[in-house]
Automatic annotation (TrEMBL):
This is Efflux RND transporter periplasmic adaptor subunit. Residues 170-197 form a coiled coil. Keywords: Coiled coil, Membrane, Transmembrane, Transmembrane helix. It comes from the Bacteria. Residues 100-233 form the CzcB-like barrel-sandwich hybrid domain. Residues 319-370 form the Multidrug resistance protein MdtA-like C-terminal permuted SH3 domain. It comes from Sphingomonas quercus. Residues 241-311 form the CusB-like beta-barrel domain.
Length: 398
């Protein structure tokens, strides 16, 4: 009892006679001072971090794991898909070479194969035959006159020694003989001309090949102004006239292989570019690449076809499409440097196909390229790179 009273009755030394704690202001001042010191220390740390370039690096366990691949360099080709029209490589129109006339017979039809010089159509020649006979008779008459003049000259030359014929007579008879021989040559030339005209009445194939079109029928009167009566594909050679953008034309060359597939057929026909357009259409910005193909019944001139042309082979890095990004400045990739920090690299993209994206400029092939997480990274970020095995990286590209 006395103990409790003694304990209750004791007053702390910091309490005055009125019951007020005299040490409370000191404690509050101490708390305020500690708070101010903590704020100053935090500010100093913030200034130090800012001057050093950012927040303290996260421990390795907190860094993001990023898959990277080393693309290397591999053989790549340029494959360009295009469309165009099938046509004869050399489409030769055949018309009337002579004076023409009434067509008696037409001996070939579209789709037939012909040889050089083969008669395609026969034109009536009754008048020309009679004229040729007349010329032959004139040649025979001129030759007879020439023989007679020669005999007369020889007889006179024998009489000169006896004084029965003067030298002037000999000269006159020699001139008569020479004129007769000249008339023979003239008649023969006229006969040759008439024979040539007679031969040109027949419409003949100028070259071997495939008859593409026939535009003449028996009973039709033809003349040089009638235009083409037949169209022949020389040697049956065909081509596809492919329309290509000027950028694609720059990636191809004469000899580039191609596979041509006509509309309505799944079979492809091998060919190659034999001629490149020397000019570009100023409106469409396109040019023509002429792809030579061998004849096949499925390839019909005038028909539509598609083609895949393979450009020049080369060696370049190839990446999966997920590794290549683009913005208003162009195409780029993210690399991971030797210090495991991310850096941006501008690249030039070449061919894009099912195998991946060919990089024509910007990479040497031995860099560590971020495979697919580029959208979540910024240049300067530190990461933990996980290198993808070369075989798997190639599988991804495929």
């Amino acid at each position: 009892m006395n103990l409790e009273r003694g304990f209750v009755g004791r007053r702390p030394a910091s309490v005055d006679g009125d019951g007020v704690d005299t040490e409370a202001p000191d404690r509050r001042r101490l708390v305020i001072i500690l708070v101010i010191v903590a704020v100053l220390v935090a500010g100093a740390l913030a200034v130090m971090l800012k001057s050093r370039g950012g927040a303290p690096e996260a421990p390795p366990a907190a860094l993001p794991h990023i898959t990277v691949l080393v693309p290397g360099r591999q053989a790549v080709t340029t494959s360009i898909a295009t469309t165009g029209v099938i046509a004869a490589k050399r489409d030769m129109p055949v018309g009337v070479a002579g004076e023409g006339g009434l067509v008696r017979r037409v001996l070939v039809d579209a789709g037939d194969w012909v040889k050089a010089g083969q008669v395609l159509a026969i034109v009536d020649r009754q008048v020309q035959v009679q004229q040729t006979a007349q010329m032959s008779a004139q040649v025979a008459s001129a030759k007879a006159d020439a023989r007679l003049a020669q005999i007369d000259l020889e007889r006179s030359q024998k009489l000169v020694a006896n004084g029965f014929v003067t030298q002037a007579t000999i000269d006159q008879k020699t001139a008569t003989r020479d004129a007769a021989n000249a008339r023979v040559k003239l008649a023969e030339a006229q006969l040759g001309e008439m024979s040539a005209r007679l031969g040109r009445l027949d419409i003949r194939a100028p070259t071997s090949g495939l008859v593409l079109a026939r535009m003449v029928e028996p009973g039709q009167i033809v003349m040089p102004s009638s235009g083409a009566l037949f169209r022949i594909a020389m040697d049956g050679q065909l081509e596809m006239q492919a329309r290509l953008a000027e950028g694609d034309l720059a990636r191809l060359h004469v000899g580039s292989p191609a596979v041509v597939t006509p509309v309505g057929d799944s079979k492809g026909f091998k060919g190659e570019i034999w001629q490149m357009a020397p000019v570009i259409d100023s409106t469409s910005r396109q040019g023509t690449a002429r792809i030579a193909v061998s004849y096949d019944p499925a390839l019909r001139p005038g028909g539509f076809a598609s083609a895949v042309v393979t450009g020049a082979a080369g060696v370049a890095p190839m990446l999966p499409e997920s590794a290549v990004m683009s913005d208003q400045t162009g195409n780029f990739v993210f690399l991971v440097g030797s210090d495991d920090r991310v850096e941006r690299r501008a690249v030039t993209v070449g061919d894009v196909n099912d195998k991946g994206v060919t990089i024509t400029k910007g990479l040497s092939g031995d860099e560590r390229v971020v495979e697919s997480a580029g959208a979540f990274l910024n240049p300067g970020d530190r990461v933990l790179p996980v290198t993808k095995p070369a075989a798997r990286a190639a599988d991804t590209a495929r």
